[in-house]
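Board notes (copied after class):
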Amino acid sequence: MITGASKGVGKGVARALAAEGVNIVLVARGREALVQAAEDIEETFSVHALPVEADVTDTASVRAAAETVREHFGAAHILVNNAGAAIKRQDREITWDDSDWINQVQIKSVGALRMIREFLPLMPHDGTGRIINIAGASGSMAWMPALTYGLNNAALMHVTGYLAADLADAWPWCAC
C-alpha cells in the first residue's frame, strides 16, 4: 500500500518495492496517472500492481480502499504513507484562512492516521507488518516559507515514534 503513488516519491517507492517482487497497491486521487503508473510497474517488474483511487482526506474513501485491498489480497503487509500536498503558494502561511491550514493537515497528518487506522486490521499479527511514514527534514527545522509543510512533517515524525511504542506493546494482542 503506497499513498500518493501515481507520481514522484510515491511512484518511486512503488517501483522499488516492485523491483523486490512485492505486489503493490497504488493509492492516489487522479485515476488516469494512477492507472498508468500501475500498468508501467506491472509491465516492468511482472508483479501485480492494483490502482486504487482514494482520497486520504475522506474516511469513507480510505475505508473503501481498505476493503478493496482485503478483497484482492486478504492482507496488507506494508503501508507507506507518502501522500502530501506540494508547496503551491509562496505567500506567508500565517495569513492563510483556517480552511487552507486544515486542508494541508488533512492530507498529510490526518490522512496518514486514517490510513493506519483502516489498514492496521489487515496487517499480519505476527510482527511482520510494516508502516512507513515519509516525512521530510522540514519537520525538524524551520523552513521558509513552508509553515504547514513543516508542521505536517513534524506531526508525522511524532506519529511514527508514538505508534512504534504503542503498537510494539499491542502486538500480538491487538484487537485491531
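Comment from the instructor: The chain has one domain: 2-170. The radius of gyration is 16 Å.
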